[in-house]
């Protein structure tokens, strides 16, 4: 592999940006495609499909045999709120291949005993994000029902370009949330990205069912996201 391409690929990994190494199986030069690159034609379609699926594969494009080696950042779910739903969601998410972090400043909820083996941060989200910033390969799930805890991370997730932003609460609760966020300067387009009520509409009632609905919606957002335009904050 060309050293310049390798250096750039390593840079993309450090920045948690997705990239595809395109290898010409006939011996032509390698090429690196970064998610968000503007492209046209059959290679653009193949790259978009590979970014969504995360699977490497060989393709035939315009008489060329190419191998698309996909390098995606590990997707992470950041949950605001160490509640019953979070306990179930943490286990389900790990089985589905997601890294997961639980953040809650309420130390009575955010205990190692309730979240054994889970990346748990007993701190205010705004402080936690100073050390661990959000990015476009993260999903933000807000489930505390407390705007003092939920609002700021939701706003940060929208500004950063998280691929999924969901918030627990009734339609009335969400309407109040939208008004607060409008006053904070978020646009209608930003607010339209919030999944609320959170999770797929499957009639979920128990914490386990709600967690399953949330995880399914996150997976649908990850696999169906728009990869044709630049996403998130500039590098």
Give an overview in words.
The protein has a 6-stranded parallel beta sheet with strand order 7-6-5-8-9-10, sandwiched between helices. A 4-stranded antiparallel beta sheet has the order 2-1-4-3, with helices on both faces. The model is unreliable at about 230-235 (pLDDT under 50). Strand 5 (about 75-80), helix 3 (about 85-95) and strand 6 form a beta-alpha-beta unit. It has 2 domains: about 5-70, no CATH class; about 75-225, NAD(P)-binding Rossmann-like Domain (Rossmann fold), CATH 3.40.50. The protein has helices at about 5-15, 40-55, 85-95, 125-130, 145-160, 170-185, 190, 205-225; strands at about 20-25, 30-35, 55-60, 65-70, 75-80, 100-105, 120, 140, 165, 195. By secondary structure, it is α/β, with parallel strands linked by helices. The protein is about 40% helix and about 20% strand. Helix 3 packs across helix 8.
